[in-house]
Design brief:
Structural class: mainly alpha
Largest sheet: 2 strands, antiparallel
Strand content: under 5%
Helix content: 55-70%
Order of helices and strands: EEHHHHHH
Number of domains: 1
Oligomer: single chain
Shape: flat
Number of strands: 2
Length: about 140
């Protein structure tokens, strides 16, 4: 199994590291994922054009964890029918923000797919991006 060298004296089995990461709170996990994706993009950027690098950074840019957490909390209140009118308005604004971000990400995916002359599905496979579940 692969190992990750933390210092010159410590090696951690990748599976053990993932078990530890699995214990993080969702917002902490999302921060780590975003940092890992940025690191991956940075390492690949060495051989990429500036345009590809910029597009990958746009594709990997996520919402701040506090925005996702607040959206989730308000969505839960909506489904439980305990949301106030002010919270509902906030949920609508967050939904607009998320849709705007998703649209920008999709535009960057399309541009990168065109630049690489591959389909969006192929590009998403190359980048390890999975379509969200309809029932998520």
């Amino acid at each position: 199994m692969s190992k990750v060298q933390v210092t010159s004296h410590i090696e951690i089995d990748v599976d053990d590291m993932l078990k530890g990461v699995a214990q993080l709170e969702p917002n902490e996990l999302e921060q780590i994922v975003n940092k890992l994706l940025a690191l991956q993009a940075q390492q690949r950027a060495v051989s990429l054009s500036k345009t590809e690098t910029d597009l990958l950074q746009e594709i990997n840019r996520g919402l701040p964890p506090n925005v996702r957490t607040r959206y989730h909390d308000l969505s839960t209140k909506l489904h439980e029918e305990t949301i106030t009118p002010a919270e509902h308005e906030e949920l609508l604004q967050l939904t607009d923000q998320i849709e705007q971000t998703d649209g920008e990400r999709l535009r960057a995916l399309i541009a990168l797919a065109q630049l690489r002359r591959v389909s969006i599905d192929t590009l998403m496979d190359q980048l390890g991006i999975h379509r969200p579940s309809v029932h998520a």
